[in-house]
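Justification of resources, computational component.

The compute hours requested in this renewal are based largely on the per-chain cost of generating structure records like the one below. Each record pairs the submitted sequence with a full C-alpha cell output. That output is archived, and it is also reused by downstream analysis tasks.
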Amino acid sequence: MGGYAGSILTVDLSKEEIERRPLDEELIGSFLGGFGVNIKLAYDLIKPGTDAFSPENPIILGAGPLVGTVAPGSSRIYAMAKLPANNTLGWAGAGGMSFGCMFKSAGYDHLIIKGRAAEPVYLKIFDEEVEIGDAGELWGKGVERTSDELWEKFGRPAGVISIGQAGENLVKFAMAFVDKTSTLGRGGFGAVMGSKNLKAIAVRGSRGVRVSDPKRFTKLCDEMFERMRKWPPLGEWHEFGFLTALPFFPRDWYLEVRKRRICCVSCPVGDKDVIQLEEPPLTRFTTSAVNMLTPMLWGLTYEEAIRCAAVLDDYGLDIFEFFGVLEFANRLYERGMIDGEGLGSRIEYSLPSLMEWARKIAHREGFGGILAEGVGGMLRRFGREAERFAPPTVKGLTAYVGPSGPLVWDRLGTMEFDQLVNPRGPHAASGGSPTYFRVRPLEEFAPHLRRMGVPEEAVRRILPEARDWPWGERLGLVSPGERGLNVGRLTRYSEDWFTALASLGVCARGQINRFYHARLLAELYSAATGREVGAEEIMKAAERSWNLLRAANAREGFDRKDDAFPLAWLEGPRFAEYTGKVEITGEIAERFLDDYYEERGWSGRGIPTKEKLLDLGLKEAAEELERLGAYRQS
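The structure output for this chain reads:
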C-alpha cells in the first residue's frame, strides 16, 4: 500500500540486536497507524507493573501514513512508554522540522527500542544502515550541542531526537526534543531515554513516501492549500505566529529579536522562530513564542523570559513542571514544612536564581534532587498535609491551563477537562474543539462538531436544551428555553478527533486542523494507501485506539479517583461553565465526569465496559480486565 513505509524496526540496546519486520495489515486496519498503532504495540509490550526506568519499558515511536506526503501539516510523530512522573502508559507527540519525514523515507513506520545500553549510545537510522553508536562524547551536553554535533557528524538533511542533562539524570519531568525545536514528552519521556543510556536518535531517508493514487491525492491537497490561502488570518500567522492568538509580547520588539520564522515539513503556517539576542552566552536559538509566556508570569522581562526558556529547553526540562515545583517548594518553605531538607531559603524568581535552580534540578544536586521528582514526587515525600499547598495537579503533573496558571483560562472547555480524563494527565493537545481559548456562541458549535465526525444524536446531547438536561437546569447551567454545552460529552469526541489526526500524522493545532474534516481525512487516507475507507471507519478506529489506551491504564489501577478535579480548582480560583454563568463546583465536576463516562460507554469508575471493548473488537483487553477483577469492582 501507499502511505506506509511497510516496516517496524526493533532495536534491543541490551543485546545490541536489530530486527525488521513487515507492518501487519490487520494492525493498520484496526488502528490506522502512528498514534493508534503505537497504542496497540504498547499494550502488547508493556506489562502491568513495569517500572518506568526498567529495561523492560520499551520506547515506541510511530509516524502515520500521511507523514512524508505533501498533505498540509502532516509532520507529526508520536511516542509511547511508561512515564516516570505518574506511571501511566503515556503518549507524547511532536512536529519538529524533518524527523518524521526522514524516518518514513528511511523505510519505517514504527520504532521499538528495548533494553538498556551498557554505556551512553545514540541510534543511527539511515535507510537500511541501522547502527548503535558511542555517545560518550555527547553525554553531559545539552540539547542544542547534541543536535548540532550530530548534524556536523552526519550532515543534513537528518532528523534528530535528543535529550539534555535532565534526561541523563532521570529527572521525572525531563523531555526529549525533536530537531531541537519541538518537545516530546510531558511526564518524563526524556528520562526514559536517559534510563536506557540513549542520548539521541538520528534518521535520514532517501526513499520518499509513495501514495497509491497521486492524481487524486494531489487534487485533495491542492484544494486544501487553496482554502488555506484564502483564510483571512493566514498572513498574520505567517508574520507573528502565536502572538496572533496570545499577544503577550509587543510585536515591534519581537520582530527585532526574531531573525526568521521556520516550520515543520509540509506546514503552510509555521509556529517557531529563530531568535537572535545581542548578549552571550545564549545568542541564537530556535523556539516557539508561546514558550516564553510562563517565565513572564513570574516577573521576568521579555529578554529574560527568552533566555530562561532557552536554558530550560537546553537542559531538557518541562517548563511548566519546572515552575510548578519551584512554586510548591516556596509554599512549603514558608509554612516550615521542609526544614532540614536543604532548601535554605525561599527561591527567588530572578533570572540568575532560576538558571541556578535549573542546573541543580537537571543534575540532581542538593535540594534540586528533590525537585527533580516533580510535583507528584514531592507530594509523596511531604505527605497529604502538603497537598493543599501544591499547584493544581492531575496524575502527578502540574495542570497546563486553569483558573490559576501557568496558562490562565477560566472557562471549562475540552482541553481543560481533558487534562483530568486523559490517561497521561495534563497536556496541551486541544483536539480541535471549538472551546480552545475562545468563547464562541453556542450556535456555532454544531458545524464544528459535524466536521469532527460527531454523530447527529450526539450533537443533541452535547448541546442539550434545558428540558433534555435536567441536572444542568437544576444547577443553573441552563434556563428554560436555553441551550447548554455539556463539556463532558464533547470531550469524548474531541479526543477521538485528536486520535484520528494523530494516527494519520496530522497536526492538531487549530490553525491546521480547522481545514480538515472527518470525510476529508478518509479521502486522503484512501488516496494515499489505496485502502478505501469512510469517515465512520476512521473515527471508529480512533475510538478503538483511545479505549485501548484507557484499558491499558485501567490494568495499571487508574480509574475515576485519578480523574478528580485538583483541590486548588475547588478551593481557590474556580473554573466557570463554558458560557460563564456558573462556577464549577465539585458536584458539577462529578456530573461532567458521569456524562463523559456514559458518552464513552464506560463504567461509573471510568473503566471501559466489557460490552464496549467487545463492540470495538478488543476482546483481549476485555478478557484481561475481567481477569484482573476490574468489572467486579465496578
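The radius of gyration is 23 Å. The chain has a mean pLDDT of 92.
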